[in-house]
Amino acid sequence: MKNKAVILGANYYIGLSVIRCLGRNGITTVAIEYQEQGTYGFKSKYLSEKHIAPHYRKDTQGFIKYLIDYAKKQTEKPVLFPCADPYVEIIDEHLDELRNYYLINQTQQGLFTKLMDKNSLYDIALEHGVKVPETIKTSDPEFESKISDFQYPCIVKPSDSPAFVDVFRKKMFKVNNKTELLEAVRKANDKNLEVFVQRIIPGFDNHMYTYDCYLDQNSKVTHYTTANKNRQYPINFGASVYTWQIHVPSLHEIGKPFLEAVGFKGFAEIEFKKDAVTGDFYLIEINVRTTNFNVLLEKVGLNFPWIAYKELTGQEIGSQALVDSTKRTFVYAFEDILAIKGYLQTRQLTLGQVFKSFFRKKAYAIWAFDDPKPYFNVIGILIGKVFKKLTGK
User: Is the pLDDT score of 393 beyond 70?
Assistant: First the structure.
């Protein structure tokens, strides 16, 4: 196949999983990063080319020019796979220009950004009858009076998650009273970050679910499955580190019409939380790029990067719905160990519950028998960090 696949974000296991998903199918895979140090995706045997480009934030114009110059040298348009939120935002901003040189799922400039932005996402969800947690915007004229009567604890959440994480190294602030809430808002405002206040939907972390699907160029869902998060890191408000595939029909009933109505194209993951009291599902966020547990989806028979590649290069993709519950489980072991420690310390899990979870059939974030070098590279990086911390060098 002449169309190369250009992957952005090879310094994390999401990008690595895309390299493997495509490379195993004979696709020429190209990783473009801003530095080689720590980029363990470069070590994959399924990677055909690696390139160093200008930093996507520090020199955005240089980065875009690099992408375009690379594409101009190819005989066929490459297929572009941004595997981290900052890349998605930049590609979306320059979508009309990049589509002249790359094959990209989305055709409507700005849609990905709207769905990533929590403020606009919740407005769009409500317009389409999808439940979201009760939210108060800081721009609301009655903000002060509304937060006085709000249910605590609650969370102060960013509209732009990637920018917030860059500054605070966390996804949100959990606050226990009005004083803490106002202080959290002040911290965000000082960094020119827009935030809002949101009710915490009751339920442990295993009340987190996902609807993972692919929509074709007609904005119709062709492939889908659902999954259940069980452990996150940081605990309670973090990313998935232990998740299994399980069939939950109601998530398809909510997610499919919503994504089709907004004109989405390509892979999407809607994250829901099930209210422990009412049983209702609330939309929390949408991932518009390959998900953390893409390796799990591949293992259960839904290779979403390969599906996207085939459609964008003019091949038939058919349709597939995984309506069985395989219970195949994704594990990101490095952070799962830290998560388990946190759950045990806060008595949210018992040793027995943790022990039982070790015996499920796994899909590992980084380790792969047929491609071990990235894993051993990560081990080396971690040993180096520990040595540096111990010696102070």
Answer: no
